[in-house]
Write a structure and sequence with these properties.
Protein Wnt, secreted, alpha+beta, wnt signaling pathway, frizzled binding, binds 2-acetamido-2-deoxy-beta-D-glucopyranose, globular, three-stranded mixed beta sheet, single chain, four-stranded mixed beta sheet, developmental protein
Length: 349
């Protein structure tokens, strides 16, 4: 067969394929697209890939939720030696921290909350198929408090359930780290659930509250960030407990002699102590603090002393120039002076 014929046959079957897909309807085109997209996303666990293929519309929302979690993490830790970045395996959830530290605990919780938040928000906006407003509430009357459910209540249970199925699906290993990750994912989702708020509106002549309708809304994600940051500061060190016969760890307990308490489902947990994040180290996933901006005067985590781990800092001087003392002159122009200021910034050696 000549090369030309082979190419012709190839094109013929390609066209046939496209026609076949068109007859098959939009869904198969979407499904084909989804399987290509889902196979291209790096770091998806096998079960997550299956979910991605069956719900291609959700994968975009999931991505937004993950990004929201990472952004919040970077905001909360912007002054820390660890700034929510890591050297490590690349996954859908960003770079993975290898050490089962408090920092990893925070990351997992905020991302699980982010996915649940984004999915719930998309449902409320009607931009995700298979969900919408919370139907359990619509139209019902709250006898005790005298108001009616109205508007669009956010269906947080759908979002939480989705986060549980998708985010938890990557925990396939049966080890202590898996128990830790699953626990922290749940903490993140609990924080979201507890943060749901009730919003109400009064109806009646001139603002009198003859009838009142209420609906549930999602909390601001920033608020969840602060709550989880507090939980990070109080995270508890745990260790795995193995059932005697098989060696697989089955649950976590507080790591203290003579303590058999399990961690509470409101506490972030970690199984390994954090590295100090001073130097770059690919074993722990630490990026180090070289080149980070620090503050010479503050006694905060971002002070040059703490941030640079005693290595000292470089001083960069520059002058800031801006228009100042502007006056409006009759008529009609504005006259300004030029002001300048010498500023210094410091970066870790
Ligand atoms: C975090 O710190 C690393 C290492 O110094 C730096 O390369 C990175 O840009 C920082 N990331 C953010 C989001 O500030
Ligand atoms: C350094 O910290 C001081 C005191 O907290 C603060 O007033 C100042 O704005 C900070 N400087 C920079 C560059 O962040």
């Amino acid at each position: 067969m000549s090369r030309k014929t082979r190419r012709w046959i190839f094109h013929f079957f390609l066209c046939l394929g496209i026609v076949y897909l068109k007859i098959g309807g939009l869904s198969s085109v979407v499904a084909l697209g989804a399987s290509i997209i889902c196979n291209k996303i790096p770091g998806l666990a096998p079960r997550q890939r299956t979910i991605c293929q069956s719900r291609p519309d959700a994968i975009i929302v999931i991505g937004e939720g993950v990004q929201m979690g990472i952004n919040e993490c970077q905001f909360q830790f912007r002054h820390g030696r660890w700034n929510c970045s890591a050297l490590g395996e690349r996954t859908v959830f960003g770079k993975e921290l290898r050490v089962g530290s408090k920092e990893a605990a925070f990351t997992y919780a905020i991302i699980a909350a982010g996915v649940a938040h984004a999915v719930t928000a998309a449902c409320t906006q009607g931009s995700l198929s298979g969900c919408g407003c919370d139907k359990e509430k619509q139209g019902f009357y709250n006898q005790e408090e005298g108001w009616k459910w109205g508007g669009c209540s956010a269906d947080v249970h759908y979002g939480l359930g989705f986060s549980k199925v998708f985010v938890d699906a990557r925990e396939i290993k049966q080890n202590a780290r898996t128990l830790m990750n699953l626990h922290n994912n749940e903490v993140g989702r609990k924080v979201l659930e507890k943060g749901m708020r009730l919003e109400c509106k009064c109806h009646g002549v001139s603002g009198s509250c003859t009838t009142k309708t209420c609906w549930t809304t999602l909390p601001k994600f920033r608020q969840l960030g602060y709550i989880l940051k507090d939980k990070y500061n109080q995270a508890v060190h745990v260790e795995p407990v193995r059932a005697s016969r098989n060696k697989r760890p089955t649950f976590l307990k507080i790591k203290k002699p003579h303590s058999y308490r399990k961690p509470m489902d409101t506490e972030l947990v970690y199984i390994e102590r954090s590295p100090n994040y001073c130097e770059a180290d690919s074993l722990t996933g630490s990026m180090g603090t070289q080149g980070r901006l620090c503050n010479k005067t503050a006694l905060q985590p971002n002070s040059c002393d703490l941030m640079c781990c005693g290595r000292g800092y470089n001083t960069h001087q520059y002058s800031r120039v801006w228009q100042c003392n502007c006056k409006f002159l009759w008529c009609c122009y504005v006259k300004c002076n030029t002001c300048s200021e010498r500023t210094e910034v410091y970066t870790c050696k």
